[in-house]
From TrEMBL:
Residues 6-148 form the Lactate/malate dehydrogenase N-terminal domain. The active site is at residue 187. It comes from Kocuria varians. Catalyzes the reversible oxidation of malate to oxaloacetate. This is Malate dehydrogenase. GO terms for molecular function: L-malate dehydrogenase (NAD+) activity. It is an enzyme of class 1 (oxidoreductase). It comes from the Bacteria. Gene3D superfamilies: Lactate dehydrogenase/glycoside hydrolase, family 4, C-terminal, NAD(P)-binding Rossmann-like Domain. Keywords: NAD, Oxidoreductase, Tricarboxylic acid cycle. Belongs to the LDH/MDH superfamily. MDH type 2 family.
Length: 327
C-alpha cells in the first residue's frame, strides 16, 4: 500500500475546516488508496473546539486516516508536511480597511511562510485559501526563500467551479460537458471568468450565449456569488469552498483531467503580460504536484481589459505589503 501523506491544515476549527477535514480523511483529495496523516493548526483559543472535531474524525473510523495532531505552533504543526492547506486567516471585521486586513493577515502569513521554510518536507506543496488568498500566498512564498516559488498556489477554483456550473445551467448542459473555462487575476470582485475559449459539448460557448449575457449577468453573478450565499445562508460559503480546495489540491497532486485545464493562482513568469512574480490566476494544467500555464491563447480586447484591471489590483496589493515590509 502507498505511504501515508502528511497534510497540514490551518484554520482547522473554522467553517471551511469543518467540511474540509472530513473530505480529506475520506480520501477525496489523495484517492482511496493513500493513507493520510493530519496536522491541524489553530489559534490557542480555538484548540478546545478543534479537539471536538478531532473526536468526530475518530468517530468516522475513516480507513485511510492514520493519525491526527493539533497545535498552535506552526513550526511543530508543519513539521514534515508534504501538503499544506492554508485556510485560516483573519476575517474582515466591521470598519476594517483593506490595508488593515492585509496587515493582520500579513503577520499570519509571514510567520507561516517562515515555519514552512524551516519545518516542512523538502517536497512540500502549499495551497492558500484564506483571504486575500493571492496576496497571502505571495507573502508566505516570499518568506520561504528555500522553497521554490512554484510550490505555492492560491485558490480561484471556487470561482472556476461557479462559472462552470453557471454556464452549464444556462446552456442546459451537464457540468461534465463544460471545458476550457479560465479564471484570470485576483480572487476578488475583479476576477475575470473568461468564456472566450470555453466549449460546451465541443461547441464554442461564445456561440451559445450572448455577449450581453456574459457582461451583464455571467461575470457579475460569478463575482458576487459569495455575497449572495452570505445573504441567503447568513454565513459565508464553506462547504463549496472546502470542495474547491479539495479539487484544487487533488488536481495539483494527481493531475487535472486530460483534455481540459483548470484555473489556479500561481506565480507569474510574465505570461499574458501579467507582471513576473505576482500570484495571479491563469488557466493551468497540472501533474504530479507541478503546474504549467496554458500558453498561446488568443486574448480578445474584451478579455485584455478585464485581465488588466484585476492584475492592477494585485499590483496594488503587492505594493501595499511591500510598503508594510511583509515581503
Ligand atoms: P472561519 O472564520 O470560520 O475560520 C477561520 C479559522 O482560522 C478560525 O477558526 C480561526 O481561529 C483560524 N485562524 C485565524 N488565525 C489563524 C492562525 N494564525 N493560525 C491558524 N488558524 C487561524 O472562516 P472560514 O469560513 O473557514 O474561511 C476561512 C478563510 O477562507 C477566510 O479567509 C475566507 O475569506 C476564505 N475563503 C476563501 C475562499 C476562496 O475561494 N479563496 C472561499 C471562501 C472563503
Amino acid at each position: 500500500s502507498l505511504n501515508p501523506m502528511t497534510v497540514a491544515v490551518t484554520g482547522a476549527a473554522g467553517q471551511i475546516g469543518y467540511s474540509l477535514l472530513f473530505r480529506i480523511a475520506n480520501g477525496d483529495l489523495l484517492g482511496r488508496e493513500r493513507p493520510v496523516r493530519l496536522r491541524l493548526l489553530e489559534i490557542p483559543s480555538a484548540l478546545p473546539a478543534l479537539e471536538g472535531t478531532v473526536m468526530e474524525l475518530q468517530d468516522c473510523a475513516f480507513p485511510l486516516l492514520r493519525d491526527v495532531e493539533i497545535g498552535s505552533d506552526p513550526r511543530e504543526v508543519f513539521d514534515g508536511a508534504q501538503l499544506a492547506l492554508l485556510v485560516g486567516a483573519r476575517p474582515r471585521a466591521k470598519g476594517m480597511e483593506r490595508g488593515d486586513l492585509l496587515e493582520a493577515n500579513g503577520a499570519i502569513f509571514t510567520e507561516q511562510g517562515r515555519a514552512l521554510n524551516d519545518a516542512a518536507h523538502d517536497d512540500v506543496r502549499v495551497v492558500v485559501t484564506g483571504n486575500p488568498a493571492n496576496t497571502n500566498a505571495l507573502i508566505a512564498q516570499r518568506n520561504a526563500p528555500d522553497i521554490p516559488a512554484s510550490r505555492f498556489s492560491a485558490l480561484t477554483r471556487l470561482d472556476h467551479n461557479r462559472a462552470v456550473a453557471m454556464l452549464a445551467e444556462k446552456t442546459g448542459a451537464s457540468v461534465n460537458d463544460v471545458k476550457h473555462l479560465s479564471v484570470w487575476g485576483n480572487h476578488s470582485a475583479t476576477q475575470y471568468p473568461d468564456l472566450d475559449h470555453a466549449r460546451v459539448a465541443g461547441q464554442p460557448a461564445t456561440e451559445l450565449v450572448s455577449r450581453e449575457w456574459v457582461t451583464e449577468t455571467f461575470i457579475p453573478t460569478v463575482a458576487q456569488r459569495g455575497a449572495a450565499i452570505l445573504q441567503a445562508r447568513g454565513a459565508s460559503s464553506a462547504a463549496s469552498a472546502a470542495s474547491a480546495t479539495i479539487d484544487h489540491a487533488r488536481d495539483l497532486m494527481l493531475g487535472n483531467p486530460r483534455g481540459d485545464w483548470t484555473s489556479m493562482a500561481v506565480v507569474s513568469d510574465g505570461s499574458y503580460g501579467v507582471p513576473e512574480g505576482l500570484i495571479s490566476s491563469f488557466p493551468v494544467t497540472t501533474s504530479g504536484g507541478d503546474w504549467s500555464i496554458v500558453q498561446g491563447l488568443e486574448i480578445s480586447e474584451f478579455s485584455r481589459a478585464r485581465i488588466d484591471a484585476s492584475v492592477a489590483e494585485l499590483e496594488t496589493e503587492r505594493a501595499a505589503v511591500t510598503e508594510l515590509g511583509l515581503i
